[in-house]
Amino acid sequence: MKVLITGNLGYVGPGIVKELRKFHPDAFLIGYDIGYFAKYITSNTISPDSLLNAQYFGDVRQFPEHLLEGVDVVVSLAAISNDPIGNRFEEPTLDINYKANIEIAKMAKRQGVKKFIFASSCSVYGSAEDTPRVESSTLDPLTAYAKSKVLSEEGLEGLAAEGFQITCLRFATACGMSDRLRLDLVLNDFVAGAITSSKITILSDGSPWRPLINVLDMARAIRWAAERENQNGRTFITVNTGSNQWNYQVKDLALEIQKILPGIEVSINPDAQPDKRSYRVSFDLFESLAPQHQPQYQLQDTVKGLIQGLESIHFQDANYHQSELIRLNVIKDLLARQTMDSQLKLVHDFS
Predict the structure, then answer these.
(1) CA–CA separation, 336 vs 58, rounded Å?
(2) In sequence order, which residues have a C-beta less than 8 Å from that of residue 13 and are 6 or more positions away?
(3) Taking Cα atoms as reference points, which of 50, 32, 30 lies closest to residue 41?
(4) Whole-number mean pLDDT of the chain?
(5) Fewer C-beta within 10 Å: the chain N or C terminus?
(6) What's the rounded mean pLDDT across residues 211-228?
(7) Euclidean distance between CA atoms 92 and 88, whole angstroms
(8) Region for residue 206 given its phi and psi (left: phi exceeds 0; alpha: psi -120 to 50; beta: otherwise)
(9) Alpha helices in the chain (DSSP H)
(10) Domains annotated on the chain, with CATH
(11) pLDDT band with cut points at 50, 70 and 90 for residue 234
């Protein structure tokens, strides 16, 4: 099996590479990434990229089609995957997350790729607190990031065909330790705050609902998609990916961390404006389709894994909101250094 992963040098990619290498040791694994976050390793083990057979650097907006020759599976991770970045750079977000994604899928189909796996998001449901959303529920994307996922799903559906299977995994909010950790994700942020300042600050009133999934369980779901047959003859499928046990209100996440780390302070802002990004999700379809690839990590496991992972790299930066572990800060730095332009394209100046 030959697999090409776009956006592999981000938060999710290292776990996928390890998962595929473990269960398909003879697979030929290729990475393709622009490299924004490549150097921000948060592990004291060998580089996760050493498990790849090949790594290419480039912008998905100028993806070279020849890299798809002989590829069996494409895993599409490459995206501006952060609401603050997406809201500030809406046009390039749509170009990268949607337009480039569809073009690569078209190339893959031309080159005879058998399977295309798209990392979508439950954020497409937007504001949906009343009942858990299922795959056929009305979509309400509230951000550029969420809109890009809806547009991609719509565009991909028309490309699916016999011999070109497409799986759209609507992932719950990612969390957990990674070799390229992000701290701009709700649970990761809370744990980092608890460790460095013994305090968790919730900027909202804590009531918004969030489904979560450990980043390593995301990798398990990607492997399922790479291995799956056409269930019920369907060459295209969209599936909420996570666990029904992982629908939490934001305040409950903080209180669970407090149980594991007694003595930390939890600060909730009761006067905050309501966060419209609040939704519960049903993962019944994923449970029925992928019974052998269900999430293995619970909330307590994930919190403890983050604590151990941060301690192993001697993480003590109480000012981490200004660090490179916040994705927007990396983008701002690249812009300030004029390494990147306003369209988030790298500028190669060798003068």
Answers:
(1) 21
(2) 5, 7, 31, 33, 48, 77, 180
(3) 50
(4) 94
(5) C
(6) 97
(7) 10
(8) left
(9) 13-23, 83-88, 90-94, 100-110, 144-157, 186-197, 215-227, 250-260, 284-289, 299-312, 327-336
(10) 2-336 (3.40.50.720)
(11) confident
Task: Give which of 321, 36, 41, 26 is closest to 180, Cα–Cα.
Answer: 41
Please report the pLDDT score of residue 233 as a whole number.
Answer: 66
Residue 68 has pLDDT above 80, yes or no: yes
Max mean pLDDT among 203-212, 254-263, 269-278 falls in 254-263
Look at residue 350 and tell me whether its pLDDT is greater than 70: no
- Amino acid at site 255: L
State both tokens at 25: 């040791």
∠ CA 201-202-207, nearest 5°, is: 155
> Burial level of 70, CB count in 10 A (0-12/13-18/19+)?
exposed
The answer to whether residues 74 and 104 touch, using CB atoms and an 8 Å cutoff, is yes
Separation between Cα atoms, residue 207 and residue 268, nearest integer Å: 10
Amino acid letter at 29?
Answer: L
Determine the pLDDT at residue 275. Answer: 67
